[in-house]
Each structure stands twice: as C-alpha cells, then as structure tokens.
C-alpha cells in the first residue's frame, strides 16, 4: 500500500515591493510520505487533588487582609455618600435661596424636597419697630 502524496511547491519570487512576481506558478511537486492509516484516539481520565495546608497562618493572614480591605471599601463608600449628601444639601439650598426649584410633577422634585432653608444663626433680618413716645 502506497502512503505517499504530492503537494505543489509554488514560486516564492517577489519584486522590490514584496509582491509575488509569479503567483500561482508551480515549480515542482513535493513528495510526502505518510504512514498514517485510519486511526482513532480515545482518552479518559479523572483527576483528584487534595490540598492540606501545613501552616494555617497564611490562611489567617489572607482572611485578615480581605476583612481589612472590606472595611476600607465600606469606609470609602461612606465617605463618598457623605460628600454626595453635603453637595446635594449645598446645591439645593443655594437654588432654593435663588428661588429655583423643580415642579412638583417632576421626577427630580423629591431630590431637594427634604432641604430646608432657615435664616443664618445670629443674623438680624431687616425689620422695624414701632416706637411709642410718652410725653
């Protein structure tokens, strides 16, 4: 039984720009040998791994590090929430002082709904007194 086959070898000549000069021209046929017959490969396997830590301090250090990181993330989130609420309070207050607010039908009306503007502490608002003079 013959296990050889031929593959064409094409002309690899190129010009100065790198383009093939004789694209598709077959220079010769190369003879290849393959002793392969019909073959079938079948593999079945199972893997099982056990890890037994000999020293628990690395696990404890990892757990402590993860717990610390979670606390840091919660603190950052709390700080950002406080910054948001303070900015909302400041902006809503300034807008209310300027007489600007959302219409009650707006979905954004509730955004500044809980902000109350009161007179500054220690501030004397313009006022007048009625003075009575006794003769």
What is the number of E strands? 2
* Helical segment count: 1
In this structure, how is the largest beta sheet organized? Answer: 2 strands, antiparallel
The assigned structural class equals alpha+beta
Helix content: 25-40%
- Determine the oligomeric state from the structure: single chain
Kindly estimate the percentage of residues that lie in beta strands according to DSSP. Answer: 5-15%
Q: Alpha-carbon distance between the termini?
A: 144 Å
| Low-pLDDT runs | none
Radius of gyration: 43 Å
Encode the helix/strand succession as letters: EEH
> What topology, given as strand order, has the largest sheet?
1-2
* Shape field: elongated
* Mean pLDDT figure: 90
Task: Describe the overall structure.
The chain has one helix at residues 57-97, and strands at 4-10, 26-33. By secondary structure, it is an alpha+beta fold. Among the domains are: 4-33, no CATH class; 57-103. Strands 1-2 form a two-stranded antiparallel sheet. It is elongated. The N and C termini lie far apart (144 Å). The mean pLDDT is 90.
How would you summarize what this structure contains?
With 135 residues, the chain is an alpha+beta fold. It has one helix at residues 57-97, and strands spanning 4-10, 26-33.
